[in-house]
Amino acid sequence: MKNRFFSYRPDFFVSLISFFIQIVFFVAFLLVFVSCGLETFYFLDPPINNRITENPSDPSERFFSFRTVTNSSSADIFTGTAVYYCLYNNYSTMTSNMASISNLIGEDYSDAAMNRVLNLGYQPIFLNDSDIIVPSSSGAVSVVIRLFTEGEYSAEVLINGSNVGVPLRTPLLTGFTFDPDKDNFPVPKETDGDVNYSSAFTEENTWYVAAYAVSIGRSLELTPVYSQVVPLGYLSFNYESNN
Protein backbone atom coordinates (compact mmCIF):
# COMPACT_ATOMS: atom_id res chain seq x y z
CA MET A 1 0.00 0.00 0.00
CA LYS A 2 1.43 3.38 -0.99
CA ASN A 3 1.92 6.07 1.62
CA ARG A 4 -0.35 8.93 0.70
CA PHE A 5 1.93 11.48 2.37
CA PHE A 6 5.33 10.46 1.15
CA SER A 7 6.74 8.92 -1.96
CA TYR A 8 10.39 8.50 -2.79
CA ARG A 9 11.51 10.90 -5.54
CA PRO A 10 15.21 10.65 -6.44
CA ASP A 11 15.10 13.78 -8.57
CA PHE A 12 13.88 15.80 -5.60
CA PHE A 13 16.80 14.78 -3.37
CA VAL A 14 19.31 15.42 -6.17
CA SER A 15 17.92 18.92 -6.63
CA LEU A 16 17.98 19.54 -2.88
CA ILE A 17 21.63 18.46 -2.55
CA SER A 18 22.55 20.56 -5.59
CA PHE A 19 20.83 23.56 -4.02
CA PHE A 20 22.77 23.22 -0.76
CA ILE A 21 26.05 22.85 -2.64
CA GLN A 22 25.31 26.06 -4.51
CA ILE A 23 24.58 27.83 -1.22
CA VAL A 24 27.89 26.64 0.28
CA PHE A 25 29.86 27.85 -2.75
CA PHE A 26 28.06 31.18 -2.74
CA VAL A 27 28.78 31.79 0.96
CA ALA A 28 32.43 30.80 0.49
CA PHE A 29 32.77 33.15 -2.48
CA LEU A 30 31.12 35.96 -0.55
CA LEU A 31 33.47 35.53 2.41
CA VAL A 32 36.53 35.59 0.16
CA PHE A 33 35.27 38.62 -1.73
CA VAL A 34 34.47 40.58 1.41
CA SER A 35 37.75 39.69 3.15
CA CYS A 36 39.73 40.80 0.11
CA GLY A 37 38.01 44.15 0.19
CA LEU A 38 38.70 44.86 3.87
CA GLU A 39 41.53 47.26 4.66
CA THR A 40 43.72 46.46 7.65
CA PHE A 41 44.39 49.43 9.90
CA TYR A 42 47.51 49.62 12.03
CA PHE A 43 47.89 51.87 15.06
CA LEU A 44 51.00 53.11 16.85
CA ASP A 45 51.08 55.29 19.94
CA PRO A 46 53.14 58.47 19.43
CA PRO A 47 56.09 59.50 21.59
CA ILE A 48 55.45 61.88 24.49
CA ASN A 49 56.95 65.35 24.26
CA ASN A 50 58.40 66.70 27.51
CA ARG A 51 58.32 70.24 26.16
CA ILE A 52 58.24 72.24 22.94
CA THR A 53 61.54 74.02 22.36
CA GLU A 54 61.09 77.57 21.10
CA ASN A 55 64.63 78.74 20.39
CA PRO A 56 65.85 79.53 23.91
CA SER A 57 68.95 81.71 24.12
CA ASP A 58 70.47 79.88 27.08
CA PRO A 59 72.80 77.17 25.65
CA SER A 60 71.86 74.83 28.50
CA GLU A 61 68.25 74.81 27.20
CA ARG A 62 68.97 74.47 23.49
CA PHE A 63 67.93 70.88 22.87
CA PHE A 64 64.95 68.75 21.83
CA SER A 65 63.52 66.24 24.27
CA PHE A 66 60.78 63.63 24.41
CA ARG A 67 59.98 60.18 25.79
CA THR A 68 59.40 57.06 23.74
CA VAL A 69 56.58 54.55 24.33
CA THR A 70 56.60 50.75 24.19
CA ASN A 71 53.73 50.22 21.73
CA SER A 72 53.33 46.79 23.33
CA SER A 73 49.95 46.26 21.68
CA SER A 74 51.62 46.63 18.26
CA ALA A 75 54.94 44.94 19.04
CA ASP A 76 54.73 42.82 15.88
CA ILE A 77 55.01 45.89 13.63
CA PHE A 78 56.73 48.53 15.82
CA THR A 79 60.36 49.17 14.84
CA GLY A 80 61.24 52.26 16.87
CA THR A 81 61.17 56.04 17.18
CA ALA A 82 62.60 58.53 14.70
CA VAL A 83 63.06 62.29 14.64
CA TYR A 84 62.43 64.19 11.40
CA TYR A 85 63.89 67.64 10.87
CA CYS A 86 64.20 70.33 8.22
CA LEU A 87 66.60 73.24 7.86
CA TYR A 88 65.22 76.66 6.90
CA ASN A 89 66.91 79.96 6.17
CA ASN A 90 63.63 81.86 6.44
CA TYR A 91 61.71 82.01 9.71
CA SER A 92 58.33 82.81 8.16
CA THR A 93 58.54 79.84 5.80
CA MET A 94 59.35 77.55 8.71
CA THR A 95 56.48 78.73 10.90
CA SER A 96 54.05 78.53 7.98
CA ASN A 97 55.06 74.94 7.30
CA MET A 98 54.88 74.06 10.99
CA ALA A 99 51.34 75.47 11.14
CA SER A 100 50.29 73.36 8.15
CA ILE A 101 51.56 70.26 9.97
CA SER A 102 49.86 71.22 13.25
CA ASN A 103 46.53 71.57 11.44
CA LEU A 104 46.71 67.84 10.61
CA ILE A 105 47.54 66.66 14.12
CA GLY A 106 44.39 65.45 15.86
CA GLU A 107 43.31 63.16 18.66
CA ASP A 108 42.37 60.28 16.36
CA TYR A 109 44.89 58.11 14.54
CA SER A 110 45.97 59.54 11.22
CA ASP A 111 49.19 59.59 9.25
CA ALA A 112 48.14 62.78 7.43
CA ALA A 113 50.51 64.93 9.49
CA MET A 114 53.42 62.56 8.85
CA ASN A 115 52.66 62.57 5.14
CA ARG A 116 52.78 66.36 5.27
CA VAL A 117 56.14 66.20 7.08
CA LEU A 118 57.52 63.98 4.33
CA ASN A 119 56.05 66.10 1.54
CA LEU A 120 57.72 69.19 3.00
CA GLY A 121 61.11 67.51 2.69
CA TYR A 122 61.79 66.65 6.33
CA GLN A 123 64.51 64.03 6.79
CA PRO A 124 65.30 61.63 9.65
CA ILE A 125 68.17 62.41 11.98
CA PHE A 126 70.79 59.68 11.66
CA LEU A 127 72.37 58.13 14.73
CA ASN A 128 74.94 55.34 14.57
CA ASP A 129 74.16 54.53 10.92
CA SER A 130 70.42 54.31 11.52
CA ASP A 131 67.44 56.59 10.93
CA ILE A 132 65.84 55.12 14.05
CA ILE A 133 66.91 57.14 17.09
CA VAL A 134 65.51 54.61 19.57
CA PRO A 135 64.83 51.00 18.48
CA SER A 136 61.69 49.31 19.80
CA SER A 137 63.81 46.96 21.92
CA SER A 138 64.85 49.90 24.14
CA GLY A 139 61.34 50.32 25.53
CA ALA A 140 60.18 53.59 27.07
CA VAL A 141 63.15 55.91 27.53
CA SER A 142 63.88 59.63 27.79
CA VAL A 143 65.64 61.24 24.83
CA VAL A 144 67.60 64.49 24.65
CA ILE A 145 69.03 65.68 21.34
CA ARG A 146 71.60 68.47 21.18
CA LEU A 147 72.17 69.25 17.52
CA PHE A 148 74.92 71.83 17.95
CA THR A 149 78.15 72.15 19.88
CA GLU A 150 77.87 75.46 21.73
CA GLY A 151 80.38 76.49 24.36
CA GLU A 152 80.67 73.79 27.00
CA TYR A 153 77.77 71.80 25.49
CA SER A 154 78.59 69.21 22.84
CA ALA A 155 76.34 67.87 20.09
CA GLU A 156 75.01 64.56 21.38
CA VAL A 157 72.05 62.25 21.83
CA LEU A 158 71.28 61.18 25.38
CA ILE A 159 69.18 58.10 26.11
CA ASN A 160 68.17 57.97 29.77
CA GLY A 161 71.03 60.37 30.43
CA SER A 162 73.71 58.32 28.64
CA ASN A 163 75.52 59.62 25.56
CA VAL A 164 74.85 57.25 22.65
CA GLY A 165 76.31 59.26 19.76
CA VAL A 166 76.22 62.41 17.66
CA PRO A 167 73.13 63.37 15.59
CA LEU A 168 73.83 63.59 11.86
CA ARG A 169 72.10 65.19 8.90
CA THR A 170 70.51 63.22 6.09
CA PRO A 171 71.64 62.41 3.44
CA LEU A 172 75.05 63.97 3.99
CA LEU A 173 75.73 62.14 7.28
CA THR A 174 77.48 65.25 8.58
CA GLY A 175 77.03 67.20 11.81
CA PHE A 176 74.79 70.19 12.56
CA THR A 177 77.59 72.35 14.01
CA PHE A 178 78.05 74.19 10.74
CA ASP A 179 81.58 75.34 9.98
CA PRO A 180 82.58 76.49 6.47
CA ASP A 181 86.17 75.46 7.20
CA LYS A 182 85.35 71.84 8.04
CA ASP A 183 84.24 69.27 5.45
CA ASN A 184 82.43 67.15 8.03
CA PHE A 185 80.33 70.13 9.18
CA PRO A 186 79.38 71.85 5.92
CA VAL A 187 77.12 74.88 5.89
CA PRO A 188 73.70 73.99 4.35
CA LYS A 189 73.22 74.67 0.66
CA GLU A 190 70.12 75.29 -1.40
CA THR A 191 70.47 71.91 -3.12
CA ASP A 192 70.78 69.84 0.08
CA GLY A 193 67.96 67.35 0.54
CA ASP A 194 67.24 68.46 4.10
CA VAL A 195 67.02 72.18 3.27
CA ASN A 196 63.97 74.32 2.55
CA TYR A 197 65.67 77.28 0.92
CA SER A 198 64.22 80.74 0.42
CA SER A 199 65.73 83.49 -1.70
CA ALA A 200 65.97 85.78 1.33
CA PHE A 201 67.54 84.92 4.69
CA THR A 202 65.57 86.16 7.66
CA GLU A 203 68.91 86.89 9.28
CA GLU A 204 72.29 86.59 7.59
CA ASN A 205 74.06 83.25 8.17
CA THR A 206 71.24 82.05 10.42
CA TRP A 207 69.51 78.71 9.97
CA TYR A 208 66.42 77.36 11.68
CA VAL A 209 65.78 73.71 12.50
CA ALA A 210 62.27 72.35 13.14
CA ALA A 211 61.81 68.79 14.38
CA TYR A 212 59.12 66.15 14.98
CA ALA A 213 59.26 62.78 16.75
CA VAL A 214 57.26 59.82 15.46
CA SER A 215 56.79 56.13 16.21
CA ILE A 216 57.51 54.01 13.14
CA GLY A 217 56.58 50.48 12.18
CA ARG A 218 56.28 48.17 9.22
CA SER A 219 53.00 46.46 8.42
CA LEU A 220 52.59 42.79 7.59
CA GLU A 221 52.39 43.99 3.98
CA LEU A 222 55.83 45.63 4.47
CA THR A 223 54.52 49.17 4.12
CA PRO A 224 55.55 51.96 6.55
CA VAL A 225 53.28 52.68 9.51
CA TYR A 226 53.46 56.01 11.34
CA SER A 227 51.96 57.33 14.55
CA GLN A 228 50.79 60.88 14.98
CA VAL A 229 53.78 63.20 14.84
CA VAL A 230 54.87 65.02 17.98
CA PRO A 231 56.21 68.58 17.53
CA LEU A 232 59.52 69.12 19.32
CA GLY A 233 59.83 72.80 18.40
CA TYR A 234 62.61 74.67 16.65
CA LEU A 235 66.07 76.13 17.16
CA SER A 236 68.10 78.74 15.30
CA PHE A 237 71.82 78.76 14.77
CA ASN A 238 74.19 81.39 13.41
CA TYR A 239 77.23 79.44 12.25
CA GLU A 240 79.56 82.45 12.45
CA SER A 241 78.90 82.79 16.17
CA ASN A 242 80.41 79.37 16.79
CA ASN A 243 83.73 80.07 15.04
Rounded to an integer, what's the Rg over CA atoms?
A: 28 Å
Largest sheet entry: 8 strands, mixed
Mean pLDDT score: 86
Order of helices and strands: HEEEEHHEEEEEEEEE
Q: What percentage of amino acids are in beta strands?
A: 25-35%
SS elements, strand count: 13
Helix content: 10-25%
Q: What structural class do helix, strand and pairing data support?
A: alpha+beta
Approximate shape: globular
Terminal CA distance: 117 Å
Low-confidence stretches: none
Helix count equals 3
What does this protein look like?
The protein is an alpha+beta fold. Helices cover 20% and strands 26% of the residues. The chain contains three helices and 13 strands. It has helices spanning 10-37, 91-102, 112-119, and strands spanning 48-49, 53-54, 64-67, 78-88, 123-124, 134-135, 142-146, 156-159, 162-165, 195-196, 206-218, 224-226, 230-238. The chain is globular, with a radius of gyration of 28 Å. It starts with 9 loop residues before the first helix and ends in a 5-residue tail after the last strand. The relative contact order is 0.22. The mean pLDDT is 86.
Draw up the topology in text.
Elements: H1 10-37, E1 48-49, E2 53-54, E3 64-67, E4 78-88, H2 91-102, H3 112-119, E5 123-124, E6 134-135, E7 142-146, E8 156-159, E9 162-165, E10 195-196, E11 206-218, E12 224-226, E13 230-238
Parallel strand pairs: 2-13, 4-10
Antiparallel strand pairs: 1-3, 3-7, 4-5, 4-6, 4-11, 7-8, 8-9, 11-12, 11-13
